[in-house]
Design brief:
The protein has 463 residues and is an alpha/beta fold. The protein folds into 4 domains: 132 residues, Rossmann fold, CATH 3.40.50.2300; 162 residues, Rossmann fold; 81 residues, Helicase, Ruva Protein, domain 3; 57 residues, Arc Repressor Mutant, subunit A (Orthogonal Bundle), CATH 1.10.10. It has 19 helices and 14 strands. The strands form 4 sheets. Strands 2-1-3-4-5 form a 5-stranded parallel β-sheet, with helices on both faces. Strands 7-10-13-6-14 form a 5-stranded parallel β-sheet. Helix 4 links the parallel strand 4 and strand 5. It comes from Gluconobacter wancherniae NBRC 103581. One of its GO terms (molecular function) is ATP binding. This is Sigma-54-dependent Fis family transcriptional regulator. Keywords: Activator, ATP-binding, Nucleotide-binding, Phosphoprotein, Transcription, Transcription regulation, Two-component regulatory system.
Length: 463
Amino acid sequence: MEHEILIVDDEPDIRFLVEGILNDEGYKTRTAANSDQALAAFRTNRPSLVILDIWIQNSKLDGIELLKIMQAEEPGIPILMISGHGTIETAVASLRHGAYDFIEKPFQSDRLLVVVQRALEADRLRRENAELRMRAGSEASLFGDGPTIAAIRSQIDRVAPTNSRVLITGPAGSGKEVAARMLHARSRRAEGPFIALNCATLAPNRFEEELFGLEGENGQPMRRGVLERAHRGTLLLDEVADMPLETQGKIVRALQDQTFERLGGTTRVKVDVRVMATTNRDLQTEIIGQRFREDLYYRLAVVPLRIPSLRERREDIPGLARHFLERCASSAGLPLRELSVDALAALQAYEWPGNARELRNLMERMLIMMPGNSNDPIRADMLPTTISQGAPSMTRLNSGADVMSLPLREARDLFETQYLQVQLLRFGGNISRTANFVCMERSALHRKLKQLGVTQDDRSQIG
């Protein structure tokens, strides 16, 4: 991520000197000679760091007063104070009001660069820690070994380094936000903020305030919106179809120009933000119904990315279930429990209307609420009836089952049918992997399945 540094000093020679030192190291710079120029530059486009002179001639405000205002508006931005007339008292005062460090003039260029690098690194770590706290309990990567999810991860790897906008579609709970976080983490903006705005839970009259923020007196932001907070990072418009039409029209221009005005203000704020959006609706249908703007759709859907439902990638369910169990056991300090083959078959047979989120919640509930010894595996009969009742009937057999009353040939056919249904589910309908597990030739397994009337996708055979 390219860092931009604002240099505030009334002496042209100092501004020129500091700008040259920083430009030689690859930093982008802007300069200001007085407090009015400094605040205008600070508010128009937030810098990564400010180098601020304490004593500014011919200026309404001195450096300490500017420091207070900048810290009040943007507490996270590191500010490095410089002065040729510094005393211990002024240095202590600047640090007390939130300055990162204090350097006396004349200074060595190496000393300046070291402090700048340390300040930017400290700010990066602060933002990274805040992001990790926010993400605690959420997934950071799309999990699964099947070809479907592998293809999506490949798409993410190709798109992430670009600055293109991405529209992520898929049913609720399928992992759309996880995909957005992966795109951000693999992008050149990974060190910048990741801000998510949930359009589905926000009251219609709050949208513009959340997006653009509020402006108070003298151009000061009373409250920064998500566009401003996501500067040099990524903004996710989660479930964007729920955004009011009026707000959609206003954000179109913000996306096009990367500038906007805060509510109640006249100053145009410039930002550098990559925008992504998610939706579980068909936006083309929403456009036809005049519930979504076509021009906004084409600005958001530069690169479309579809996340499939969990039932479309049943082969990933066993690994995903174990992953959720391991994560829950680690975070809650509970012993890990295994899933039996019949439980896995039941999980793969279920339709999962809530997708991966529903599976994650179930695994957490099972680990916490399961009776019995922690060394005992989780079996199919321990799962909720809504899940276990859809499992292949073999997983529900007991010593009193009707199979004991059948002739040997019919009992054997019933057993083989149910056994192969379970194994096909277990391996996501993959004939080669199923044949390898049951120790049969692939062609022999095909003949056996045909003889028994078992098909890979015939759901009516299961139950």
